Amino acid sequence: LSMFFGTCFITVGLMTTSVATKFYQVFLAQGLYVGLGCGCLSISSIAIVPTYFNKRRPIAIGTASLGSGISNLTHPGGIIYRVEPRIGLGSTVPVIGFIALSTLLIATLLMRTRIPSSHVRRIIQTGVPRPLP
């Protein structure tokens, strides 16, 4: 559910950034919408990774965190560098929004936890985790 809300917040934030004319509008679009969206997505993506790894769990979580940070820096910058001189900044930001929407929809549809929810409830109730299958 947080993946869905994160996808919606980021898409709305990027689309409203392209039509913003005043500073407070850019602040609301980027700071509030995109910030909340990234928070929702980071919680979900980091919470799902440990369910797939037993032995090298810290390395898996670190790699997922590092990959998302590097992607957030290089992805929009590369698109702006290539597309902005051709169509202008006002049209480049919606392009970034549509690319983000398509990739986030794929991630939202494909991300699933490996451990059933009854196992998670058992850990909370007893405090003792059982080994993964």
UniProtKB/TrEMBL annotation:
Taxonomically, which superkingdom? Answer: Eukaryota
Q: Where is the signal peptide?
A: none
For this UniProt record, the keywords arranged alphabetically read as follows: Membrane, Transmembrane, Transmembrane helix
Tell me which species this is from. Answer: Lepidopterella palustris CBS 459.81
Transmembrane segments annotated in the record for this chain: 30-53, 87-111
Against Gene3D superfamilies, the record matches this protein to:
MFS general substrate transporter like domains
Name of the protein this chain belongs to:
MFS general substrate transporter
